[in-house]
Amino acid sequence: EGQKNVKDSYLSKVEDTMAKGEIKEEIYNDLKRRYQAELQTINESLERLYKELNALKTTLESEIERFEAETTIISSSSDELTDMYSKALIPEPEYKKQKKELDAKLKSVEAEIEKRKKTLGHLSSSQ
């Protein structure tokens, strides 16, 4: 983006200088062609990068949705487990073991969500 602005600035200066009659038309045309070609290359690169950025954002958003759905499932399983334990349907050691596993899994999934949200935030602020 910065490189594009620099080239736009040079092109504008060349056009102003030509309008004032300070450079020959031949030099003007050569510089204009060169700067326009460079701007075109920069624009094409920026377009490609923006497409890649948007694709990455879409992927991150999908992953966040998937992980959030997974947290709902894990929380539901944890609630069911607690309910079964409160009704004395499973022994305490089994409850503690399964509860610990579910809590660890939930913590891991929540960490993945936060990582992706942070990355998404960085990508959004850079655009």
- Globular, elongated, flat, extended or rod-shaped: what is the shape? rod-shaped
Q: Strand pairing plus helix content: what structural class?
A: mainly alpha
Count every helix, treating DSSP H or I runs of 4 or more residues as helices. 3
**N-to-C span:** 10 Å
Question: What is the average of the pLDDT values?
Answer: 90
> Which range best describes the helical content: under 10%, 10-25%, 25-40%, 40-55%, 55-70% or over 70%?
over 70%
Strand content: under 5%
Helix/strand order: HHH
Largest sheet: none
Any low-confidence stretches, pLDDT <50, length ≥5? none
How many domains is the backbone divided into? 1
- What would you report as the Rg, rounded to the nearest angstrom? 29 Å
What is the total tally of β strands?
0
